[in-house]
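Lecture 7 notes: from sequence to structure.

We start with a single chain of 244 residues. Read the sequence below before looking at the structure.
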Amino acid sequence: MSSRARFWIVTVAAVCTVALTASLGVWQLGRATLKESLASQIAERQTQPALEGRQLPGSHDEAEPLLHRPVRLRGEWVPEASVFLDNRPMAGRTGFLLVTPLRLDDGRVVLIQRGWVPRDFQERLRVPTVDTPAGLVELQGRLAPLPSRLFEFSGAESGLIRQNLDVAEFSRQTGLSLLPVSVLQTGASPEGLLREWPRFEATVHKHHGYAAQWFAMSAVAAGLYVWFQLISPRRRRAIHDQNP
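Now the structure, written as tokens:
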């Protein structure tokens, strides 16, 4: 291979490396900006007046602008439709997340993520008895997406303990027409449920750190190219010309 061909191969490789690492740095900065904007949006929504039952969204499109807002609901529990979602961590421990539908004053039904209970490791299929008041109840919380899904090998589940809650299948099983959102119940729990719900953290410093690493790699690649392809050959030629 001629020296000229080698020069252009190295040049193209260096340009691609610098372009790739620099673009990844810019992408990480964009991620940081996006998370900062999302954190600001969530914080602003949490200060807005509480939504009441009739104001809960009836579709996914209506739900997005209302997520994370506080809610104040009145309704009746549907305790026979309660489920315990398995393998849900809280405060560093693994246990169950209790989800119970609440029938609102207007007849609509929303899933309430009531809180967390520990697992009985000696009897894995045993769940604690949690008091569910009869009659009209009032509760506070914040609007959230439907319970998150974990990886599972099987399809839709049934029964009191489930890995995930397939809302469409759950509606078919219970005959309840559920809203496309859920509510994280907040406040003290006389039933003994833990409600240390995770807060959204922007963690922009992580993305800034990644961006700095990519930009540093870009600078190193550019510096090595300039040294070995431009400066060093010229120095060698200059020395050679001085000492023929």
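The chain has a mean pLDDT of 87. Keep this in mind for problem set 3.
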